[in-house]
Design brief:
single chain, 295 residues, alpha+beta, BirA Bifunctional Protein, domain 2, 8-stranded mixed sheet, 3-stranded antiparallel sheet, 9 helices, 21% strand
Length: 295
């Protein structure tokens, strides 16, 4: 797989995604790489239990694991639609290299919409994915031909299943099996996870994961957001306060507001478009779990 062709497709993909969001009234914000707070990713026990941190100027800074907290802060400042192409650093376990889908460092398209509901974002994502595939086919057709790839535009609407339904069909460790069984992207909803996803009514989560078909796995994760400080504090059990302290202060100060959004992995989207075996096949200078890179 030639790097020139891969990068031509990547350039077309990123340009198509950016163009789509700008056409829908989104504003691009610059990525945050170091911050006094970041996404703890709890309760995903397979990821690093704590983000990478270091001392600086008498305080502690973390490398960004996702820009979720900063997106919510931006929306709280009156920016109704925002997005960023955010570099994320996650110290995944060496075992995750076996999936072919995980990297220590990757780029995520993070976006958030004030006042949006999950159905709004799911419809937006379905259109964005379709338009991005069309854009790649239009702008990088020669590169696709040289790579022997021609991605089909996904059929809409995408199928939806709850986590309970997908587990009943594919078992507790469902992602890979379900992904291999499907021919089109599909949604999995109502997933118990981080404190910032809205739980309403109790025991039901207003969130969603998009799964690529043909074994390419999770594409996107998102949800409606919790903005009420007392509810956030109730759900912080198990989360180190030092990781989210500044964000919690924003909530207590009334500087959060209802919103919904998601994060879309760029390298995994590219892997899906090119039907590559492993994500490092489409990422120049890939950082693979369990390996020290030569450069």
């Amino acid at each position: 797989m030639g790097w020139r062709e891969v990068l031509e497709v990547q350039t077309a993909l990123v340009g198509s995604l950016r163009g789509f969001l700008v056409s829908r009234g989104f504003l691009e914000i610059m990525p945050v790489v170091v911050a006094p707070a970041t996404d703890p990713l709890w309760p995903d026990s397979a990821s690093s239990p704590r983000p990478v941190s270091f001392e600086y100027a008498g305080g502690r800074l973390f490398l960004t694991q996702s820009m979720i907290l900063h997106k919510l802060a931006a929306v709280g400042q009156g920016l109704d639609k925002v997005f960023a192409f955010s570099p994320n650093v996650r110290l995944e376990s060496a075992e995750r290299a076996a999936t072919g889908r995980h990297l220590l460092e990757f780029v995520q398209l993070d976006f958030e919409v004030a006042g949006a509901k999950m159905d709004d974002i799911m419809a937006l994502v379905e259109e964005m994915v379709a338009r991005a595939v069309e854009g790649v086919r239009r702008m990088a057709s020669e590169a696709l031909g040289r790579l022997g790839a021609w991605p089909e535009v996904p059929k809409r609407p995408f199928e939806r299943m709850t986590l309970e339904e997908v587990r009943a069909e594919f078992g507790e460790v469902w992602e890979e099996e379900a992904s291999r069984a499907m021919d089109e992207p599909f949604w999995v909803t109502d997933i118990p996870r981080e404190f910032y996803d809205l739980e309403e009514p109790p025991g039901h989560f207003r969130n969603y994961d998009l799964i690529w078909p043909r074994g390419h796995g999770e594409a996107l994760s998102g949800g409606e957001r919790e903005w009420r400080p007392w509810r956030i504090e109730e759900r912080l059990n198990g989360v180190a306060r030092e990781v989210v302290g500044p964000f919690l202060e924003l909530a207590r100060s009334g500087l959060l507001r209802p919103s919904a959004g998601a994060g879309l992995g760029i390298e995994r989207f590219l892997k899906f478009l090119l039907d590559a075996d492993r994500v490092e096949d489409v990422r120049l200078f890939a950082r693979v779990p369990g390996r020290v890179p030569p450069l």
